[in-house]
Amino acid sequence: PGGLDLPVERIEAAYFDSVLNRYYVVSQDANNRFGYVDPYLGAFITVAANMGTTAVPTAVAVGAGNAATKITGLTRNPVTNRWYVVRIDGYLFEINPATGVFVPGAFGGNDYLRIRNSSGTIQTDIEDLAFDAAGRLFLVQNTPSANQFLQDVSLITGYAAGQVNLGIDEAEGLALTDTSIRLIIGASGTAG
């Protein structure tokens, strides 16, 4: 168990699992920790103190610290029941929620995908990800740009089918409703 050790300022990725009635989070420690908040104890229960380091195609830490390789998004695909995390620099990993560690070879033998726009340019500054009810993946970037909202990202190639500029400064979170593609975006408001 992780006990009460959960610095709130280090939580950037969270997902509420309505099936298990658990609020899962990633804490951005030296190695990003995966776990959930026990609503009865008010404690953070660590599932994984280290989410792993990939091997294929290259060695990449799944998440580390609160900087260039931090995990910024956590979600579950409602169609396949598979879980995913994304790093701010555009690396996408499938994770096993029972162990908190990445799933080796989850992407056609590779341990991760790089997120790209529809032209194939690798995307960074990724803040969150969410699936719609049909199992399509969407991602949001922190700052306004032509690629701020990446639509229908392929879990085979990492390419987005399309992208748009939402014009939202400091976009920090993304959620999609179960019945429509209405966006619910959290923003920190620090940029006005």
What is the topology?
Blueprint: E1 11-17, E2 22-27, E3 33-38, E4 43-48, E5 71-76, E6 83-87, E7 91-96, E8 101-102, E9 113-114, E10 126-131, E11 137-141, E12 149-153, E13 160-164, E14 171-176, E15 183-187
Antiparallel strand pairs: 1-2, 2-3, 3-4, 5-6, 6-7, 7-8, 7-9, 10-11, 11-12, 12-13, 14-15
What does this structure look like?
The chain is an all-beta fold and 192 residues long. Helices cover 0% and strands 41% of the residues. The protein has no helices and 15 strands. Strands 5, 6, 7, 8 and 9 form a 5-stranded antiparallel β-sheet that branches. It has a 4-stranded antiparallel β-sheet with strand order 1-2-3-4, with no helix packed on it. Strand 6 (83-87) and strand 7 form a beta hairpin. The chain is globular.
